Hints:
Layout: H1 9-60, H2 67-74, E1 80-82, E2 91-93, H3 99-107, E3 113-118, E4 131-137, E5 143-148, H4 151-154, H5 162-201, H6 216-261, H7 267-293, E6 301-303, H8 305-318, E7 322-326, E8 333-335, H9 337-355, E9 357-364, E10 368-375, H10 409-418, E11 423-428, E12 434-441
Parallel strand pairs: 7-9
Antiparallel strand pairs: 1-5, 2-3, 3-4, 4-5, 6-8, 9-10, 10-12, 11-12
Helix pairs in contact: 1-3, 1-5, 5-6, 6-7, 7-10, 8-9, 9-10
Amino acid sequence: MRLPWPRTLFARLMLIWLIGIVTILATSFALFVGERSRSDRSALFEGIAREISASMDVLDHLAANERGPWIEALGGRRLRFSLDARPPENASPVSEHFPLVEALRRAQPDRKITLYSQQPKPGGPSLHHLRLIAILTLSDGTPVSVRLPMPPLLGIRELPSPERILAALAAFVLGLTLLTWFAVRVATRPLSRLAQAANALGEDPNRPALATTGPTEVALAATAFNQMQTRIREHVAERTRILAAISHDLQTPITRLRLRAEEISDPALRTRVQSDLDAMQALAREGLDYARSLDATAPLQAVDLTALVDALCQDAQDMGWNVTRQGATHTPCRAQLVALRRVLWNLIENGIKFGERVEVSLRESDDAIHIDVRDHGPGIAPDELERVFEPFYRTEYSRNRETGGTGLGLAIARNLLRAQGGDVTLENAADGGLIAHARLRRNSDTH
């Protein structure tokens, strides 16, 4: 089964660093332990070989009848000499390449040397604790056996217990993880800021430029991002100017056509032509409003949202619309008054077109003020909840003369809200109808 690969750069760098460092640590530890053990044993066996060699030289200079009393005196803490040269029970010869054999060969090249290992008896020490017996021959041919005690008594240091090794490794990995987390976070934080700036760019092309500080690669990426933001801002401004110019210049020929339509003698034809001119003029007017919404730079001011919604509800009721308010706000919000009025009126008008009855609900949260405009119409398909904010897009249900519009109302509302730090989304109500969720930041201050 293929293991899942982390999706974030932060997690991938953490994983790569930890696996690499832990692998290097484990390899280094294994090599260190092996080399340390080999070095310790080599030094130990060299010392034992020199001690045995010195003792054998002493015995060589003694008469045969004097060697017995000296055997006990020559034996030290680690060595036991004996003139008994019989091979021990359960013993087997040790390879000539054993470190102690090689050390004895170097110290006593002219002597006959045989090294045996004696297995422990059943129920005795573990197989790790073997006894070593060396049999050497004096210059007169007399064999001498040298019994070495178990490795712990020889001074060979054993490895720490597995629990201590695991605890030390765990502590090291924990410290390494914290250090890696800090290093990777420092390295990836500029990328996170760049991603946040890219997300915010879609809502506000006029946002402040990114700081071009930090490592060279990050500074270059921030500089390129700022240049892209400048070009996007210029393209949006150019498109806005073109759209505004076209929408404005269309007013004059439409007015001339309206005057000439009055000269048409056929009343039915004159009515149809005037209806088409009204639609063209509404489209030009909406296009001009949309262009202006892309460049909403009016100053922010304190707005009593409850009073504003009450005024809009009254205006709608004067037109025969069924519009009511629910809830209230207790603190003024900072917003662009004219733009906010246009947003709410567009949402109310859109709800009346498709739902006939509209409720406007106000509520506050810790960081935002929420305005919900709900109608009781058929709602829209889930895949169109976001597409209806595209300029000139209309649902299939709205493509008729009674309910159809220009397809710019919701696009204008979103542009005007985003220009003052807010946003608007749509949601189908569980019991029917459509809800427009408008949101404004409590301390909106984008300009």
